[in-house]
Design brief:
Layout (H helix, E strand, L loop, with lengths): L1 E7 L7 H11 L5 E7 L5 H9 L5 E4 L13 E2 L1 H6 L4 E4 L5 E4 L2 H12 L14 E5 L5 H5 L7 E5 L3 H13 L5 E4 L10 E4 L25 E4 L8 H9 L2 E3 L2 H16 L7 H6 L2
Parallel strand pairs: 1-2, 1-3, 4-6, 7-8, 7-10, 8-9, 10-11, 11-12
Antiparallel strand pairs: 3-5, 5-6
Helix pairs in contact: 4-8
The chain binds 2'-monophosphoadenosine-5'-diphosphate.
């Protein structure tokens, strides 16, 4: 039996078991099982040891442990190193437990799909202006895909966290970031991304007014949240006539790369897969 887990706290709402078990069945991996487990911070070392010993074959990490898991790992991939965010663990041939970040891939693949003409993970934002709301756990994974943007504007309720992210990104070679006070907006941008947790509860609203985007069909308003399917941020954008996208495809693409890492099978994301999450 090969055993996989997603760990987090809370974890009840995770859809990772649904998607991974679906793919395991679809690709005839009959002795594979994927479960969710609520853990505490003090359990993290033990989870990593279970991968080392072969008791577990792979683990996904979700909130709030994507950074906290790092001290227990033997090795990180470059994205995980830069973003200090790990969402997938596996054991390498030499026994080392490696932490990788597949959220970066998840975000960039989902945008490629949406923006016409974009063909690769680096070209889709080339020369574009991008407005990023938030500077939380997932934000570095998004900003990391934006190296070719003309300009990245970041705003966060706690400005200091946006400044910290800008400093981190400078170490990756990014010179195109400007931090704005919360409530301020840049010129019209090509992509506006909500990376805050505002909207997870249906009634929540960012209270930022984007009325200058009325009837703008070019700008993509993207929310990393996928449950609820349409946050107020996206609803308002849709009613203004903007393009919108929620975090569902990002979730699927991050899962796809994790699955491929563990099984060497790149699962297809077809309509059946997409509708599983509806
Ligand atoms: P997670 O662990 O889910 O990534 P996080 O790292 O705390 O959570 O990030 C949540 C993000 O949502 C942060 O950018 C946070 O802003 P602060 O840095 O000021 O905390 C943002 N956020 C949460 N509640 C918010 C609110 N009511 N208004 C604006 N931003 C909010």
């Amino acid at each position: 039996m090969k055993k996989y887990l997603v760990i987090g706290n809370p974890i009840e709402h995770s859809l990772s078991p649904l998607i991974h078990n679906y793919w395991m069945k679809k690709y005839n991996l009959i002795d594979f099982i994927y479960e969710k487990r609520k853990v505490e911070e003090e359990d993290l070392g033990n989870i990593v040891d279970q991968i080392r010993s072969g008791e577990l074959n792979g683990v996904n990490i979700t909130v709030p442990f994507k950074k906290k898991i790092i001290p227990f790992l033997d090795k990180l991939d470059d994205y995980a190193k830069d973003t200090q965010s790990v969402n997938t663990l596996y054991k390498q041939f030499n026994g080392q437990v490696v932490g990788i970040n597949t959220d970066v891939h998840g975000f960039s693949q989902s945008v490629i799909e949406k923006i016409k003409g974009a063909t690769s993970r680096v070209s889709e934002h080339s020369g574009k202006n991008i407005f990023v709301l938030g500077a939380g756990g997932v934000t570095p994974s998004i900003v990391h895909t934006l190296s070719l943007a003309n300009k990245i504007y970041i705003t966060n309720r706690t400005k200091e966290n946006a400044e910290k992210l800008k400093n981190e990104a400078t170490k990756w070679g990014f010179r195109n970031i400007e931090v704005l006070d919360w409530g301020n907006k840049p010129q019209i941008c090509d992509l506006v991304v909500n990376t805050t947790s505002v909207g997870l509860k249906r009634e929540e609203n960012l209270n930022l007014n984007f009325k200058e985007y009325k009837n703008n069909k070019n700008t993509l308003f993207y929310d990393v949240i996928y449950n609820p399917k349409e946050t107020n941020f996206l609803k308002e954008a849709r009613l203004r006539g903007n393009k919108t996208m929620n975090g569902k495809m990002m979730f699927l693409y991050q899962a796809q790369l994790a699955f491929d890492t563990w099984t060497k099978i790149l699962p297809r994301i077809d309509n059946d897969t997409i509708s599983l999450l509806d």
